Amino acid sequence: MPTDTCSTCGRKLDLHDRHVRFTLPDPVLDTDEREAAAGTWMSHGNARDSVMMYVPAFGAFVRALLPIRLVEGHTLTYGVWLGVDPRRLQSIIDVWWAPEYRDLRLRGRLANAIRPWGLLGTSVDTVVRDPDETPYCSHSDDRDLDRVLRSEWPHDVLPDI
């Protein structure tokens, strides 16, 4: 008989294959003006829906997916912001909705802390796995972030979000 709880950790199964989307990069979130700062540009009408943004004094940010593999085939996927070189933002915009998007490779820094590891500011590379999806974090020169990306984790790393 199917159950809606995990045999490993006892949590509801719908908590295991989740997508958690950060609304803003952490440095922007920590300001009074947030995305309303003068000169801010967003790819969509609000920060939650945007896939790119530029915030004066903080720089350029692009969305990426950071999958956390859990035991028994489950995945917690974070929709994170990456800080990218502002000089690259226009070229990213130019290909984002074009056929060339499938070949987009980005290098940036995580602009969101990931519980329980932290990792804010660590360098990460992305690849486009599916042209209809946001790029995925694929590799990091940072030993801790690369371990997070490559390892399978117990269910107790799941944050209570």
Automatic annotation (TrEMBL):
Q: Name the InterPro entries on file.
A: DUF2199
Top-rank taxon, per record: Bacteria
- What name goes with this protein? DUF2199 domain-containing protein
